[in-house]
UniProtKB/TrEMBL annotation:
<keyword id="KW-0282">Flagellum</keyword>
<keyword id="KW-0010">Activator</keyword>
<feature type="binding site">
    <location>
        <position position="159"/>
    </location>
    <ligand>
        <name>Zn(2+)</name>
    </ligand>
</feature>
<protein>
    <recommendedName>
        <fullName>Flagellar transcriptional regulator FlhC</fullName>
    </recommendedName>
</protein>
<keyword id="KW-0966">Cell projection</keyword>
<keyword id="KW-0804">Transcription</keyword>
<keyword id="KW-0805">Transcription regulation</keyword>
<keyword id="KW-0963">Cytoplasm</keyword>
<comment type="function">
    <text>Functions in complex with FlhD as a master transcriptional regulator that regulates transcription of several flagellar and non-flagellar operons by binding to their promoter region. Activates expression of class 2 flagellar genes, including fliA, which is a flagellum-specific sigma factor that turns on the class 3 genes. Also regulates genes whose products function in a variety of physiological pathways.</text>
</comment>
<keyword id="KW-1005">Bacterial flagellum biogenesis</keyword>
<comment type="subunit">
    <text>Heterohexamer composed of two FlhC and four FlhD subunits. Each FlhC binds a FlhD dimer, forming a heterotrimer, and a hexamer assembles by dimerization of two heterotrimers.</text>
</comment>
<feature type="binding site">
    <location>
        <position position="143"/>
    </location>
    <ligand>
        <name>Zn(2+)</name>
    </ligand>
</feature>
<keyword id="KW-0479">Metal-binding</keyword>
<dbReference type="GO" id="GO:0044781">
    <property type="term" value="P:bacterial-type flagellum organization"/>
</dbReference>
<dbReference type="GO" id="GO:0008270">
    <property type="term" value="F:zinc ion binding"/>
</dbReference>
<dbReference type="GO" id="GO:0003677">
    <property type="term" value="F:DNA binding"/>
</dbReference>
<dbReference type="InterPro" id="IPR007944">
    <property type="entry name" value="FlhC"/>
</dbReference>
Length: 180
């Protein structure tokens, strides 16, 4: 019988596995730095190995606005509802939860023949904003679906599906999504 591997080695391989999974999902460096304990240099090397290219530079803007724009909001709400649903079930760590929720979101959107407006990195950012209570979920007073909103949205909130902006008339894509 060989001695059990030191904890640090086990943890290290778990971190690498997790980083590789996130890279395959299309995560940017800021996600990898947040969700793993590997150094920036190691992440860069791993990224090149897994993705076959260098990671794209630049950060996402640190703003909640994107998630509150009409169609983006519908996609964000769909993703967050899946994420919250999964988080109440099996005990998954944050990276697994994010990955699983994103796969389900992508499948649902693909089934409706829509483009996934929400990237994996944006989905991660959305969860961070939600956990920091910079964004919340509010029930639409009309359809009852839960939507991503500012915290402390009014009770009379009406979602972007029930009350689409005027410019939405020509777009079929958002109407295909329902959240209830
Ligand atoms: Zn509604």
């Amino acid at each position: 019988m060989s001695a059990p591997a030191p904890k640090s080695v086990l943890n290290e391989s778990k971190q690498i596995e997790r980083a590789a999974m996130l890279i395959e999902m299309g995560a940017r460096m800021q996600v990898l730095e947040s969700e793993t304990s590997l150094s920036y240099e190691r992440l860069i090397r791993l990224y090149k190995e897994v993705a076959g290219r260098s990671p794209s530079k630049g950060q996402l803007p640190f703003s909640t606005d994107w998630f509150l724009t009409w169609q983006e909001n519908i996609h964000s709400s769909l993703f967050l509802n899946i994420h919250q649903y999964l988080s109440k079930g099996a005990s998954l760590d944050s990276a697994e939860l994010l990955t699983r929720a994103y796969r389900l979101y992508s499948e649902q959107v693909a089934a409706l023949e829509l483009e996934p407006l929400l990237s994996f990195t944006r989905a991660w950012r959305l969860v961070k904003f939600f956990e920091a209570e910079m964004l919340a979920r509010t029930a639409c007073s009309d359809c009852g679906g839960l939507f991503v909103t500012e915290p402390y949205e009014s009770r009379h909130y009406v979602c972007g599906l029930c009350n689409p902006p005027a410019r939405a008339g020509k777009s079929k894509s958002a109407g295909a999504l329902t959240l209830h």
